[in-house]
């Protein structure tokens, strides 16, 4: 008697999401982390991520990590040069940013909004104006726990008006909503591949400006040292410092080519920049 096959699952979870047959098929080939094809694949992925962030012409770069979204966040927060961090939260992802700061002995203040309400621009202004010691501002675009979308553009502009460095968790929104990092004043964007990008888990992403090009060696987790990872990828044409999730990187390219990846302007940009 033939074994009954279960119907394909449709995941309605915050992540991981349902992946297409094309994404699944892309992971069937074994690639070594030193293979030229794989190095080129990593560089292609970095280029496409910058295209999605509308930052090809700006001094931004993209870095990949083996790990989930919080891995990307920890790679950034753990290597912050001295200064206070203020995180504006209305859910678990914002709270996690503050927790990472405290674990790494970074003075972190949590400014909490109700889970059912977006973070307000006035909260940012009121918290920053009297506190010049706050150097970094942590914001969440799409709060995964509730699905609430915060007014990121306005919040980031309020922080830049006070001359602060803006760190953004966009794990739930990158690839699904326009996020022009330079135009919006975002210094560092942290995300992952297994939500709006419709890839598979365990690939963390950092898109950042010059922020990561200083303080080489800073960061307590050896495997998450942001500058070192960027330097290796940048200088050695897509090389990773340690063994990387090759299947996840292959799936990322397939995900980029999906017609449903994002809104129309992002679709057009992705197709134009990433079809090679």
**What is the count of DSSP helices, taking H or I runs of 4+ residues?**
10
- Gyration radius, in Å: 19 Å
Question: From the helix content, strand content and strand pairing, which structural class follows?
Answer: alpha/beta
The dominant shape is globular
A few lines on this structure:
With 276 residues, the chain is of the alpha/beta class. α2 runs antiparallel to α10, α3 (69-77) packs across α4 and α5 packs parallel to α6. It has ten helices and nine strands.
What can you tell me about this protein's structure?
It is a single chain. This protein is α/β, with parallel strands linked by helices and 276 residues long. It has a single domain, classed as Type I PLP-dependent aspartate aminotransferase-like (Major domain) (Aspartate Aminotransferase, domain 2, 3-Layer(aba) Sandwich), CATH 3.40.640. The protein is built from ten helices and nine strands. It has helices at 21-26, 36-52, 69-77, 92-103, 121-128, 152-161, 181-184, 226-235, 246-256, 264-274, and strands spanning 61-66, 84-89, 108-112, 134-140, 142-143, 148-149, 165-169, 188-192, 203-208. A seven-stranded mixed sheet has the order 1-9-8-7-4-2-3, sandwiched between helices. A hairpin with a 4-residue loop joins β5 (142-143) and β6 (148-149). The longest helix is centred in the N-terminal third of the chain and has 17 residues, at 36-52. The radius of gyration is 19 Å and the shape is globular.
């Amino acid at each position: 008697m033939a074994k009954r096959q279960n119907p394909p699952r449709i995941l309605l979870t915050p992540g991981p999401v349902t992946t297409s047959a094309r994404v699944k098929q892309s992971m069937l080939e074994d690639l070594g982390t030193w293979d030229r094809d794989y190095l080129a694949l990593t560089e292609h992925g970095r280029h496409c991520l910058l295209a999605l962030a509308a930052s090809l012409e700006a001094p931004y770069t993209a870095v990949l990590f083996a790990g989930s979204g919080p891995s990307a966040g920890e790679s950034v927060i753990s290597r912050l040069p001295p200064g206070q961090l203020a995180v504006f939260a209305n859910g678990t992802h914002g709270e996690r940013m503050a927790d990472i700061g405290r674990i790494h002995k970074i003075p972190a203040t949590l400014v909490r909004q109700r889970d059912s309400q977006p973070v307000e621009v006035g909260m940012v202004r009121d918290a920053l104006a009297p506190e010049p010691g706050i150097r970094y501002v942590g914001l969440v675009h799409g709060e995964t726990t509730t699905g609430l979308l915060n007014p990121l553009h306005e919040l980031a502009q309020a922080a830049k008006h006070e001359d602060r460095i803006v760190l953004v968790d966009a794990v739930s929104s990158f690839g699904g909503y326009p996020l022009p990092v330079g135009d919006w004043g975002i210094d560092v964007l942290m995300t992952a591949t297994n939500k709006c990008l419709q890839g598979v888990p365990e690939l963390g992403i950092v898109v950042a400006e010059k922020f990561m090009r200083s303080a080489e060696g800073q960061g307590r987790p050896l495997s998450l040292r942001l500058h070192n990872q960027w330097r290796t990828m940048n200088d050695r044409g897509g090389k990773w410092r340690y063994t990387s999730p090759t299947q996840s990187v292959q799936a990322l390219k397939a995900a980029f080519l999906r017609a449903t990846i994002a809104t129309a302007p992002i679709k057009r940009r992705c197709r134009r920049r990433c079809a090679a």
